Amino acid sequence: MNNVPTKIDIESAHERIKNHIHKTPIFTSSSINKILQSNLFFKCENFQRAGAFKMRGATNTILSLTEKELSKGVATHSSGNHAGALALAAQSLNTTAYIAMPNTAPEIKRKAVESYGGKITFCKPTLDDRERTLSEIVRKTGATFIHPYDNYRIIAGQATCTKEILEEINNLDYLLAPLGGGGLLSGTLLSSKYFSNSTKVIGVEPKGADDAYRSIRDGKIYPSINPKTIADGLLTSLSEKTFNIIKENVYKIITVEEETILEAMYLIWERMKIIIEPSSATVLAAVMENQKQFHGKSAALILSGGNVDIKSFQR
Amino acid sequence: MNNVPTKIDIESAHERIKNHIHKTPIFTSSSINKILQSNLFFKCENFQRAGAFKMRGATNTILSLTEKELSKGVATHSSGNHAGALALAAQSLNTTAYIAMPNTAPEIKRKAVESYGGKITFCKPTLDDRERTLSEIVRKTGATFIHPYDNYRIIAGQATCTKEILEEINNLDYLLAPLGGGGLLSGTLLSSKYFSNSTKVIGVEPKGADDAYRSIRDGKIYPSINPKTIADGLLTSLSEKTFNIIKENVYKIITVEEETILEAMYLIWERMKIIIEPSSATVLAAVMENQKQFHGKSAALILSGGNVDIKSFQR
After folding, report:
1. Contact between A155 and A168 (Cβ < 8 Å)
2. In sequence order, which ranges of A142-237 are alpha helices (DSSP H)?
3. CB B231 within 8 Å of CB B138
C-alpha cells in the first residue's frame, strides 16, 4: 500500500479486521460534562484487545500479508502498546511476532508481549541498537518489519476507530486524539475527512514532548529529543507519512501541561470508573485547559489505551 | 410495603426506576475466563449512578413516598454508598437527603454526599450516637428514615440488578453477590427465584466479616462485631428482613481471604480496565478460591460498586 489510504481503503480495513477486534463502547459522563460544560463522548480503546487502539492497525497489516510473508512472521522494535498488539494479533492470526525490546522496558510491557506469545530479543535502549537488533531478526527469520506508524496499512487500521465513532455519533464539533508518532491522529484525520462533513480534528501532545506541534508549526519534522512526560505512549517523532497527512488535514494541535494530564487521568478514573493510561488523558486535559473553546460544544475524545500500572501512582 | 417483594413488586420497581438509573453493561473478559476456565459475566454496577447498585433501592424507595413525605425529605445514617446514592436520588427527585455521618468517615465519602447536595450532620462513630443523631434529624425535619437494607422497597430496588442480568444472559449456572447487610443478596435471590429456573445464588463474604455466614449456618443473627476486612461495604450485620430471605433461598455462602480479594481486585483493574471497590472483588475471589466448583460453569458476578480511592492502594 503505497498511497495515503482512501475512503475505500479504510472501509476495506474495517471489514477485514472487524471479527478480530472489539467494537469498543462510547461512554459519556454527566458529571464531567457538568464540570466542563461540554458534551463529551469517550471512545474506550482502553477496552480494545491488548488494551489499546494499536490492535486495529496491527491486525489490518498482518491480514494484508501474503501467505508466504505470513508464514515467516512479523517484527518490530517497540517497548509499548504496538509490541503488545502486534504479538496478540500475530498469535490470533497464527503467525509469530518478533520484538526487539530495550532491556530497560517496564516489566509489565515485557510480560504482556510474552503472554501473547511474542518472541523478545533484548537490546540496548538506543535507536542504533534497536535498529541493528531488528535488522538481525529480520535477516535471520525473514519476518516482515511492521513500523508502528510509518505504514499506510497501520494508519488505515487506526482510522477504523474514528469511523466507528462517526457511525454512532452525529454532528460532532470536535474529535480529539492523542499525538505521538501520529498514526492514530492520521487515521482520525482521514476518517473524519471521508465520513464527516464538518468535524474539526485536534491532535493533543504533552508540552514536554511537543515535537509534533513544532514540526507542524514550522513545516518540517523535528525529532523528539529527550521528551519529558508521563504520557509514555507519546514519546516518538512524526514520520514522513504521518507528518504529511497531519500537516494537510489537522485543525490544530494543542499542547497540555503534565499536571493537567494527571488531573484528567484521575478525573476519568474516579468519575467514569475506567482505567486509562496517561497518554489517553491528554485529550481530556486539552478540554480542561481550553474550556472556553469547548463550552457548549460536542467532542469525541479517543481514550487510546489502558495499559498502566495504576498501583505505581499516588498523589 | 410490609411483605417480602413479589415478582410483580420487582417488575413495578424496575418500571418505576428505569428512567432514573443506568441499565449497566455486562462485561466479559476472555483472559480471566482463560485463567479460571469458567464463563464469567460481570454486571458493572460500578458504572451505576453514584457508583454503586445502591442507587436502585434508594430511587425505588423515594419514588414510593407520598407527596407529603417527599416534601419533608429522607434521612439515613451511613458513611458509605447508601448515603451517596440516597443523596443523589433525593437531588434527582427534588427532595433533600439528611445524612448522619460518623466524623471518622473518609473524606471521599463526605465529598460525594456533599456534591450530590446531601445535608450532613456529623456524629461520633458509635451506633448509639448515630442513632441518636438520626432521631434528632427526623424529629426536626420530619424526614422519612430509609434504612440501607432492612426495607422491602430497598430490597425490591436492588433486585432489579439481577432482573437485568437474567434478561440478558440465559442458562446461568450461578449468580454471585457480595454480602454485607444482605440487601443486594436478598434482591438477587428474589429475582433469581422469579425470573430464572435453575440458577444457584451464592453470597460472598470476607472471612474477616463472616457474621452472615455464621448466622445462616446457625439459624440466628449474629451481629457484625469488629469486622476486619478491606471490603468496607461489607461491614454491617444482617437484619430481620434480609436474614429471613437469605436463609430461605440461598444456595450457599462462600467466605474469602483478604489476600484473594486484593488479588481479584487487581486482576479486574488490570485485565478489564475498570475500577471496582474491594467489596466488589469478593465475588471473583470466590471463583478464584473455588476453581473446581466453577470449572466450565457460567456465572454472573455482581460488581457492586466502584467507589474507591485507588491512589491509596499499592502492592
Report:
1. no
2. 152-168, 183-195, 211-218
3. no
Q: Which residue of A has its CA nearest to B308?
A: A270
Question: What distances in angstroms separate CA B50 from CA B18, B185, B294, one per listed residue?
Answer: 15, 20, 31
Last residue of a domain, one of A119, A145, A171: A145
Find the residue in A nearest to B35 (Cα): A115
Whether B51 contacts chain A with CB within 8 A:
yes
CB pairs under 8 A between A and B: 36
Q: Is residue B228 part of a domain?
A: yes
The domain tally of chain B equals 2
* Residue A249: HSE in the Cβ half-sphere, 13 Å Cα cutoff: 23
Instruction: State the pLDDT at residue B315.
Output: 46
DSSP class of residue A4? -
Do residues B23 and B100 both lie within one domain? no
Mean pLDDT value across residues B190-207: 97
Are B35 and B71 part of one and the same domain? no
pLDDT in tens, B36-83: 999 999 999 999 999 999 999 999 999 999 999 999 999 999 878 999
Grid cell locating A71: 508464514
In chain B, where do the E strands start and end?
Answer: 26-27, 39-44, 74-77, 97-102, 119-123, 144-145, 174-178, 200-206, 252-256, 298-303
Taking the Cβ of residue B278 and every Cβ of chain A, the question of whether any pair is shorter than 8 Å is answered with no
Question: Can you tell me the distance from the alpha carbon of A59 to that of A192, in angstroms, rounded to the nearest whole number?
Answer: 21
Domain boundaries, position A205: 7-51+159-312
- Distances from the Cα of A9 to the Cα of A196, A302, B285, B288, angstroms: 16, 21, 46, 45
C-beta pairs of B121-128 under 8 Å, 24+ apart in sequence: B123/B77
Instruction: Give the mean model confidence (pLDDT) for residues B113-135.
Output: 93
ipTM of the complex: 0.91
In a domain, B1, yes or no: no
